[in-house]
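Entry for the shared binder. Reason: the reviewer on the internal report wants the predicted structure included alongside the sequence.
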Amino acid sequence: MYQNSLEYAQKCDAQDPLGKFRESFLFPKDPMGNPLIYFCGNSLGLQPKKTSEYLQQELKDWAELGVEGHTDAQHPWMPYHEFLTRAMAQIVGAKNNEVVIMNGLTANLHLMMVSFYQPTASRYKILIEKDAFPSDKYAVESQLKFHGYDPEEGLLFWEPQKGQELCHFEDLEKMLEVEGESIALILLGNTNYYTGQYYPIKKITVLGHQYGCKVGFDLAHGVGNILPNLHENGPDFAVWCTYKYLNSGPGSLGGIFVHERHAHNAKLKRFAGWWGHNKQTRFNMRHEFEVIPGAEGWQLSNPPILSMAAIRASLDLFEAAGMENLRKKSIQLTGFLEFLLDELNDERITVITPKNPEERGCQLSIQVKNTNKGLHQKLSQVGVISDWREPDVIRVAPTPLYNTFEEVYEFVSRLKSILNS
């Protein structure tokens, strides 16, 4: 299907219906002014050209309207988060009332665990993947300690079989057979940051619920990348950031999903704030807390407008491109990349990301034996921005919204030159 030639890559780009979106982004450049090959959207997405315009509009309204901008700005600030809801819900496959943009990722994860980690004397353990992103591990350990449990005993790990990098669903099934009745929460980082493995959300959710566990996912490396179909797949909650594939800027806000079956459960424990209170009486300061049904009920504070404006600039592009189209191109890009890496016939190289495109996103994790971070630095010197993870893995993420087949070809060509030098 694929061909190992520059001409083939250029032909793919010429036929790419999403190719026009590349012009909507700003690319880092080398000292000569040439765009760098940017394969690091899994760490920080590129800036859309419209971001500056969207931010300037809010600064203009702030300058000209002051506090009246809450109601009279071109995009009024008081309901600003609502302008992001529809596009965000489409990206994660949710209903509008199941999604809200707010806070940072780990803050949101803690808020979700306040509600969905409810330990009892017999059911108190939390299960995560062995190589979870450190922030997730720190968060669940602190929750266990907060409730009086020792993480050494209360934290369970779904891990690869000896000598392997990827987790097997069958091993998770076996763990649940043994520990299921003691597990209060299954929390998995989907897609795994290190290997790029995409865990089957529906299968895991059904399995967890079968044993009475609550099930949640951290979609930091999946949102805007895979099709999580959260409503249909049915986890209790999910959290994510927006600064990776969603291109909202460094340290920007995160998002949450809470399945609609929990929407009207006002008795569900939560940490509350006034932005989660009934919108009709929110500014009547003497009302008792009356939670908004759905995900909005977990909000704490009024929205940070400048950050949300940057998110809106990116989500407008996602809505125009369509997640189904982006996913299709992503599979083609990673397939082409994997093909070219195989063509190198270099025994030092192993792609530890699953070969099945349904089990990965747009990241390929390339393990290079007998190397160190110097390889990553050499790639940087030849105009490639990727990501290095110890001890010997280069994470490469050709992102369908702005990367090209020619860039994939050029990356492998430059990697080959470095390895053969």
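Summary line for the report: The CA atoms of residues 85 and 96 lie 6 Å apart.
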